[in-house]
Amino acid sequence: MKRTYVCDVKETTEERVLVKGWVHKIHDLGKITFLHLRDKTGIIQLVVDKDEIKDLRLEMSVEAIGDKVENEKAPGGVELISKGISVIGKAFYDKLPFEVNSYKQKASLEKQLDYRSLSLRSPKTRAVFKIQEEIGDAFRTYLKDLRFSEIHTPKIISSSTEGGSEMFTVNYFNKRAFLSQSPQFYKQMMVGAGFERVFEVGHAYRAELHGTWRHLSEYVSLDVEMGFIEDEYEVMDLEEGFLNYLFKTLKEKCPKELQMYGIELPDKLEIPRMPLAKAQEILLEKFNKKSPVGNIDAEGEVILSKYIKETYDCDFVFLTEYPVSKRPMYAMPDSKRPELTKSFDLIYKGLEITTGGQRIHDYDMLAANIRKFGLNPEDFGFYLDSFKYGMPPHGGFAIGLERLTLKILDLENIREATLLPRDLKRLEP
Ligand code: AMO
């Protein structure tokens, strides 16, 4: 007999079906006993004999044959009268570390992460990763339709891209190498190598010394780079277009998952764009909140987002015109105000989810800028070389996949939006 997925039981024309999954719940009501079986697609109720369940334990994997009966009270409006259940994956535990079948997960996040193979079985927890999967899919579909090519760049690299000290070192055949913080140099290189428009969904590594709710040491970066642009606003338009497409897609494909988290996504996003200096001024004048030079801090991001929501009814804001001193050496300075760059951040519900901008594409200007930053152009050999052969004006951005998921679902900690998080303390599972 062919297996029927739980979500297809109601619609199938078969009277008798074979379902497979895990023992989600056993309800012994005295006169009648129910077993809830859970598979990837949902939960179905089986009416069972007491004898059939006496050796069953929660979370064992089982297969069951049952006859279909419509029942409004059953989950999904249909139930199965059991014609036989067998265990196909035994249980080896004394006591489950936590309940998988309660809607509200009571175990601490740390414990859920320790027992990831169990915590992910909870439909509400797995819903996070259904959303995440659709984000990746929407990113690909949206960009491919606009003639972007998907690329895969190396994650073992020889030099820093983002500057700073947050690099993991790797012993590479007795040479020192690093784990990539960002595909920045390679995505720019590929624009010049004739691809013009590229994107990558790949891992990025940061040796983050702060174990906060929003930092991971390994995250997934949704990277974009495009050539022949006019300015950084074209790059922002692209990101805004993607986010509109994403929200539309999520509403169509994940209504159940969004509902589990009580999320209603807006129909149309028009993201306000504001110079950083203006945001700092608003924070100071309206909220008496001082900002660090050339940036706003985490608390400032939260306050500013609330202000933007009240003023523009939008959960997002692009901050523009970051100063040269706070941006990497590849950021394009504004020709009229050379102390400012043509770069931006995107803040979503109080959290930075993107950095992007126009890049320097002129070889001489880039080499001079590298020197200006106190770095040695010789250390950037292959990167600089790729600017020798007619590199077009270009720009791009990167979105942290886990941060975007976290904010879409209003989660509290980035680890909830990470299948198997890596951070200061966690290297397993
Ligand atoms: P940036 O360093 O700002 O920019 O990173 C881009 C986005 O990546 C995410 N992110 C992180 N997510 C989780 N944990 C971390 N430790 C972490 N660090 C960064 C954030 C952030 O906004 N090359 C540029 C992008 C570009 O200009 O195209 C870059 O990497 O969501």
List SSEs in N-to-C order. Answer: EEEHEEHHHEEEEHEEHHEHHEEEHHEH
Query: Stretches where pLDDT falls below 50 for ≥5 residues?
Result: none
Total domains:
2
Name the helicity range. 25-40%
What is the count of helical runs?
12
**Span of the ends, CA to CA:** 36 Å
The overall strand count is 16
Binding site for L-aspartate: 162, 206, 355, 359
Pfam families: tRNA-synt_2, tRNA_anti-codon
Family: Belongs to the class-II aminoacyl-tRNA synthetase family. Type 2 subfamily.
Region (Aspartate): 184-187
SSE layout and pairing:
Layout: E1 16-28, E2 33-39, E3 42-48, H1 50-53, E4 61-70, E5 78-89, H2 109-114, H3 116-119, H4 123-145, E6 149-150, E7 156-157, E8 169-172, E9 175-179, H5 184-195, E10 197-205, E11 218-227, H6 232-253, H7 255-260, E12 273-275, H8 276-287, H9 298-312, E13 316-320, E14 343-348, E15 351-358, H10 363-372, H11 381-385, E16 394-400, H12 401-408
Helix pairs in contact: 4-6
The structure holds aspartyl-adenosine-5'-monophosphate.
What would you note in describing this structure?
- The chain is built from twelve helices and 16 strands.
- The chain is of the alpha+beta class and 429 residues long.
- The protein has two domains: 84 residues, OB fold (Dihydrolipoamide Acetyltransferase, E2P), CATH 2.40.50.140; 295 residues, 2-Layer Sandwich (BirA Bifunctional Protein, domain 2), CATH 3.30.930.10.
- It has an eight-stranded mixed beta sheet with strand order 6-10-11-16-15-14-13-12.
- The two termini are 36 Å apart.
- The mean pLDDT is 95.
- The site of aspartyl-adenosine-5'-monophosphate (AMO) has 22 residues, from β11, β15, β16 and α12.
